[in-house]
Specification:
About 35% of the residues lie in helices and about 20% in strands. The chain contains six helices and six strands. Strand 5 and strand 6 form a beta hairpin. The protein starts with a strand and ends in a 15-residue tail after the last strand. The mean pLDDT is about 90.
Length: about 220
């Protein structure tokens, strides 16, 4: 049976000196460190995968810039998929350290389990799973055509959609302290399947030495 590995990859660091929660806002590209992270991912994938046969990427600029070195290294054209976009968030455009204290914004945080301020966690899991299923089917066809026993696909997405998809796969609650998420910038969360069965989830902090020293806004 073919082993299919889906590598959920968070984008690199974003240039955001004002600390804006940028969410899905346009115009937020990678910082110099973020570009270094992306280039490292472009080297990491050929060294740590067997046969990458599919690239899927969020439509947002930071994800598109992150996938570019991986595309060059693998010779593949990325497929943009809206289903792996960042979570919708009603706080987009705010500087949370300053603006969240305003009463109009505080009223939106009454339910952290949904969450009340943005796209439900369950909705993020559904769309991510659908995108993964589509990619898995493509990879299986490629494996069958080439006689591969292991085939890899890469999805460049965002912290929260990747994290809640992992939590759902591991049977854990979808809500929790954002500071405890194991999904660093330019990290890789790998889902390994045998047929339709998820066998394993592994996490790799590819750019551990390049991570910012404090939490950053956005995702």
């Amino acid at each position: 049976m073919t082993t299919v590995r889906i590598h959920l990859t968070r984008h690199g660091e974003v240039y955001n000196p004002e600390g804006v929660l940028y969410g899905r806002l346009p115009g937020y590209g990678l910082s110099d460190t973020g570009r270094e992270m992306a280039e490292r991912l472009g080297r990491w994938y050929p060294e740590n995968t067997k046969a990458v046969r599919g690239l899927v990427v969020s439509p947002l600029q930071r994800a598109q810039e992150t996938v570019a070195p991986i595309a060059r290294a693998t010779g593949l054209d990325p497929v943009t998929d809206d289903r792996v976009i960042e979570a919708a968030n009603r706080f987009e455009g705010l500087v949370l350290s300053r603006d969240l204290k305003r009463p109009a914004h505080l009223r939106r945080v009454y339910n952290p389990f949904r969450p009340s301020w943005g796209e439900p966690y369950t909705a993020q899991v559904r769309r991510m799973r659908a995108a993964i299923a589509t990619l898995r089917s493509r990879l299986q066809r490629a494996a069958d055509a080439e006689g591969l026993d292991t085939v890899d696909g890469v999805v460049v997405s965002h912290q929260l959609p990747i994290w809640v998809t992992r939590l759902a796969a591991e049977g854990r609650p979808l809500w929790g302290d954002p500071r405890r998420r194991e999904c660093a910038l330019a990290s890789v969360t790998t889902f390994t399947y045998s047929g339709a069965t998820l066998d394993d989830v592994q996490y790799t902090d590819v750019c551990a030495d390049l991570q910012p020293q404090k939490a950053v806004a956005g995702a």
